[in-house]
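Supplementary Methods, section 5.1.

A reviewer requested that the exact input to the structure prediction be made available. We therefore reproduce it here, unchanged from the version used in the analyses.
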Amino acid sequence: MRATIDGRSFASAGRTTILEAARTLGIFIPVLCNHPRLEPFAACRICLVEITGRPTPVPACATPIEDGMVIRTDSDGIRAHRRAVMELILSEHPSACLAGAEKETGEDGKATIRKTAEATGCVLVPVDTRCELQRVAASVGVTRTAYPAVFRNAAIRRDDPYIDRDDNLCILCGRCVRVCHELRGASVLAFLHRGGRTAIGTPLRKSLLDSGCRFCGACVDACPTGALIERAARYEHPDCGGEILCALCAQGCALGLDFSGQRPVAARPSDGPANRGQACVKGRFALLDIIGHPRRLLHPLVRRGGTLVESTWKDALETAARGLAGSAGRVGVVASAQNSCEDLWALRVLARDVFGTSRLAVAEGLFPYRRMKELAVAGAVSRGVPFADPARAKLVFLFDESLLRTAPILGLEIHQALRKGAKLVLVGAEDDCLDRFASIRWKMGPETAGLVLLALLKILADCDHGRPAAAVPGFAGLKRELRDFDLDGFLRTTKTTLEKLRRVTALLEKRTPAAFLFGPRFAADPWGRRNVATLWNLAVLTGGVLVPIAWEANACGAAEILGEFEKTAEIRAGEALYDAGSGPHLERGNNSFLVVEDAFWGESATRADVVLPRTLFPEQDGTWVNAEGRVQRSQAALQPPGEARPGWAIASGLARAMGRGFPAFDSAASAFAGLGKNVSAFEDASRELAEGRPAFMKQKRTAKPAFVSIPDAARVFDPAAGAVLGDPDDCFGLQAGQEIKSLKTVRRG
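The structure derived from this sequence is encoded token-by-token as follows.
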């Protein structure tokens, strides 16, 4: 299709709106209700344009390009239409900051109606200079409104964590309602009443918390006027900003930090490749509380006479070196998959080349990737899959995982798949934000979930219906294993009906491709090998894809960098322990010498002989691998508090203090270069990042997909025997979901 916009030619092969086409050509059309990830709504009518042959202007945001169209975006008539619409909008919006000869200082409006409940005058509005309505009003040339002002005089709602709601500033563009419904799948906000009483709120005027809000902040970011705004940043006026990568979970979201001077005042989602302008409650609202938490470790500590006292870095490293040197080869090292790739690589070199130990452990959150690596010989991909893959699925299985807490951005992709008609099957005891969308629900723990899969696998394998599974290696052996599975006993034990199983197998046969999502609980010992092996066979049989979900920011990268590693529960017997990120769930034995590298004062530090303060991700350069296997680099945006140092720098300093050879890590870049030379999965990432291209861990398939043997196929597991996992909200020993008041309120809600 070809069209002409303001005399310029535009060609498109697909459906394109006039607004999108104009933006492609660099032609500005003002708009207030449009959002790049939402369906056109045409509520504000500011984007009106003329089309030759049509009697009235049309909204550019909702009108698709047609072949031969001749469009004018700027004319005397269009400008008059836009000014009239803007004046109508301003008649119900306090407009001291939008009109008047002295609007820059607010002198013209200080005697007029209140802009907010706290103060008058336009210079004190919450989003002054950042308000889209201000910019659009200026672009259409509105300096006065001919209509009498109508002030709603609504009270500001402050009964929720993080967010204030001020109906006086709302222009009913609907962006908050639509982003909550279409993009986030929460449907907390809605249009209330009709006519002149129309307002945006929650059903029955309840608080956001009581209405099921997840406090992702998408409504705040979508609001063009500050009617919905972050409470902590309400009257902050940032003068600069920086970009970081959020490492509070494994989604790899890009965030922007706003600063007032040197002080960070707010975090906001950026348009990164993983999150595309979305975030969650931790990254959007809780991040600054985590960074500035009063339990931050600021200085090295050394135990003197039974008491930990502040020390210099030189003294702390030398004390640690003396204590660890006497246990060479018998030092246990615990890593955290929240650390950057550079920190993990330096720690691996420190453990193996300096301490001379192979006893390197990591928290049990790496179970999903451990299982996928075990299946690599059968053709599995050991890293995660792109978020877009499950978004294209026609059937989604979710096993014992709350995507709201552990994988919020992946949860958005699943929601989009469901909006397109996909079916959802939930297996697990975890209540999830997707519950209300589920077609089939089994409420059982991960120790039993594998039996559901075995039952489905048995029914499908026995009723092959000409499927080419028989040609896949291992099929005959799988059939022999399934022959011994007691389907009748499973039905009696779990109170599941054969009819329910057949409903699911029918979905598996008809709705392809399928996506099977599972996390650490499902893959944990002792039932994890059975669960994931059975799930893999089901995926091979039905053409599905396995989607491992990790809790820690760099779990995917840690599984490759650390290589062979133990579980933290197995590391306690070491005579000495270097704890670089165990978290509160680690059970510790009696160590002859304990060095703790951490960001927060906690249980680990109280028992330590030496405490080394480390930086958090906004305070250091580094690289993280998200759940997709995407390698992303982040630059430091904040000065480290006190004397905190990055993990790679601490490892380098400790190696020097021990007088041992160590690679010359004088920066994060040099540490990453060493990683790329020694770990094949990263050998291309450095070049791709330098060229500005998307970088993923290098992956080699070792075989075509094959069926695998299922260990413990008939075993009934005791749920109490499962590995003790931490909380997805934990951050280097800080139990954020318990220790940050507002986040705690959200989690309980």
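Residues 446-462 form the longest helix (17 residues). These observations are discussed further in the main text.
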